[in-house]
Design brief:
Length: 232
Amino acid sequence: MGVDGAVRPPAYQTLAEDLRAEITSGRLQPGERLPTEPQLCARSGVSRSTVREALRLLASQHLIVTTRGVTGGSFVAHPSPADLSDTLSTGLNLLINTSTAGLYDLLEVRESLEVPAAAQAARRRTDEHLAELEAALFDPRTTDVPAMLAAHRAFHSALGAATGNPLLELLSRPLYQVSNERDVAATAPAGFWVQVDADHRELLRAIRAGDADAATKIAREHITFIRASLTP
């Protein structure tokens, strides 16, 4: 506890925050080696176990990677949309499941990102993107809700990738990783998944045709349908 009565964070957290600031500010670039453990000990005045705990924390946040051997060490990680999205989705799950934020709020954010993403995908998609979207379609006659949710996430992840905008992909992906299986299973009306599948197929046709206006309209109507089906 500090002299002002405030509780001080553990030393490893303080060191991790200092290193995180160097990474996120760009002072340490992707692929760059961090100082060695002895150097960090000397620089920060902490023990080697404290340094190792700080490095483990940064690794768990996908900010660094550590390798063994003569040429090993800790290196700044190259940003990965998938890893960063996993971190964001953890925070979103916590927020949705433990606060007043709910499905309606989630859908509102989805609409603000998904509708323009559909238009961008229609303008920028490649054959590979089209193949990924096609592969994410599912049989709406199945009763396997987790499988349909997984396909739904895959479709919208592919949609984000098809925009060609890595930031939009990064921000969109976590929205479909929120664990709402129980809510959907409990509230989805009859015919819900049939309509979801039909919307996805119609959106794919518009994207394949390069019709940004049609893709915008379909994406907006898709969110409107989901909101009407799953929220009061």
